[in-house]
Amino acid sequence: MNFETFELKNGLKLIIHVDKSTSLSVFNILYKVGARDENPNKTGLAHLFEHLMFGGSVNVPDYDRVLQKAGGENNAFTNNDITNYYISIPNNNLEIAFYLESDRMLQPAFSAKGLEIQKSVVIEEFKQNYLNQPYGDVSLNLRPLAFKKHPYRWSTIGKNIQQIENIDLTDVKEFFNKYYSPDNAILVIAGNVNPKEVIRLTEKWFGNIEKRNVQSRNLTTEPKQRKKRTKTLERNVSANAIYMAYHMCARNDKNYYASDLITDILSSGRSSRFNINLIKGKKVFSELDAYIHGSTDPGLLLISGKLFPDVSFSHAEEEIKKELNKICTGDFSKRELDKVKNRVIAIQNFSRTDILNKAMELAYFEFLGGAELINTIDTNYSEVSKEQIVNNAKSIFKDTNLSCLYYKSINKNGIS
Asked: Based on the number of CB atoms within 10 Å of its own CB, is 195 exposed (0-12), middle (13-18) or buried (19 or more)?
């Protein structure tokens, strides 16, 4: 993927990707702040702040109305590592996006009333997605089981509703002044654009915003886990479920791609190990999946499954570990490995037919260390060897590296 990179005097990183096949432009701005940057006693603030940003700014009280009149669409997301805002807009109205986003970076429209409204929205989201939904509270329990020191121990939504309720206007303003600064942001403009014009617009709208000398992260390192951790929850759900979390490497580690391919061998597609052996074959699980968090700091490789009736937790866990041991001993073919490599590379390349995906990826890889890393993904996957898969599996799939959550149904659909 071709692109150009620039940096303003105030520290704002700018990446321009020209794509002449589209009539839309994407304005994507990534702030290097996520849930891991929060005070442990005031979690959920990064996500709440994302909501507050759509309340407008000092000069633009109705952000959505202005954008919609220009034919634009927008959204945002927050995770443990970053907060990302994006706009899709017709090429000829691109400057509207510069106007809106620079004004939000300069001075959002904070008010006590607006804060209370958005707190209510986030609290309702917390209840709906994490408390009132079957299996919704898994991450609220599994994260603090697996992490004891690192801020990945809480979810993006926050630890609990009470901490969200206690966030005040002072907390919000301090958070903004600490993190929403040009020197803590990466701006990507993608589309059928003129790079010189994009640079001019960036200087015009963002060049006079002062940087705040954002401090580098100094996060607590998670100590090495020394023994298996378990927790049992009893809930009114349809089936017993098991959630297994193994610590794995960080996103920039050379073994990240091997870890991702391991989960694909286990659960990606109808011919995956889990599907053939444990769902269709032995009928231990009605659903079984393996995936990785892909977090910037060392994160988790997760396995989650719903048990068939009359299958015990101990038997289910034993059957999963048998499949994991096959990976550890190299009991898989080159064809099997090549198949998952081709699949993930194809999915990756297909995603780049979408201009928004390309913009978000460029921003994220710049955050990881350099946008040029985006052009190494296919090679990194294709060069993973069987030996690397085996060695990585051996280092991950140890009981001393495992946190296991047993999610027990109390409506008699499963047994413990």
From this structure: middle
Buried b (16+ CB within 10 A) or exposed e, 214-240: beeeeeeebeebeeebeeebebebebb
In what helix (H) or strand (E) does residue 233 lie, and over which residues does it extend? Answer: strand 229-235
pLDDT value, residue 342: 96
- Run of H or E residues at 18: strand 13-18
Determine the Cα–Cα distance for residues 185 and 199; give it in Å rounded to an integer: 16
The partner residues of 187 in beta bridges, in order of sequence, read: 14, 29
What is the C-alpha to C-alpha distance for residues 318 and 345, in angstroms, rounded to an integer?
Answer: 32
Q: What is the Cα gyration radius of the chain?
A: 23
For 355-402, where are the alpha helices, taking DSSP H only? 355-368, 377-382, 386-396
Please give the structure tokens belonging to residue 108.
């959002």
Express each pLDDT in 226-276 by its tens digit.
Answer: 999 999 999 999 999 999 999 999 999 999 999 999 999 999 999 999 999
pLDDT number for residue 412: 58
CA distance 8 to 90: 25
Q: Determine contact, residues 80/34, Cβ cutoff 8 Å.
A: yes
Q: For residue 326, which of 260, 289, 277 has the smallest C-alpha distance?
A: 277
Question: Would you say 286 and 308 are in contact if contact means Cβ atoms under 8 Å apart?
Answer: yes
Contact (CB, 8 A) for 140 and 130: yes
Token pair 């609990």 is found at 160
Q: Which of 142, 138, 318 is nearest to 230 (CA)?
A: 142
Instruction: Determine the Cα–Cα distance for residues 360 and 383; give it in Å rounded to an integer.
Output: 25
Residue positions counted in the chain: 416
- CB 120 within 8 Å of CB 161: no
Range 139-152 burial, b when 16+ CB lie within 10 A, else e: bbebbbbbbeebbb
Q: Please report, as a single letter, which amino acid is at residue 302.
A: L
Residue pair 48/166 in contact by the 8 Å Cβ criterion: no
Q: What is the DSSP letter of 262?
A: H
- Tell which residue, 406, 415, 360, 416, has the closest CA to residue 141: 406
- Dihedral sign of CA atoms 364, 369, 372, 374 in order: negative
Nearest-angstrom CA–CA distance, 154 and 72: 34
Predicted confidence at residue 416, as pLDDT, reads 43
The dihedral built from the CA positions of residue 54, 58, 61 and 64, taken in this order, carries a sign that is: negative
**Per the structure block, which two tokens stand in for 231?**
């927790």
Helix (H) or strand (E) holding 278: none
Mean pLDDT of 42-71: 94
Q: How far is CA 23 from the centre of its chain?
A: 29
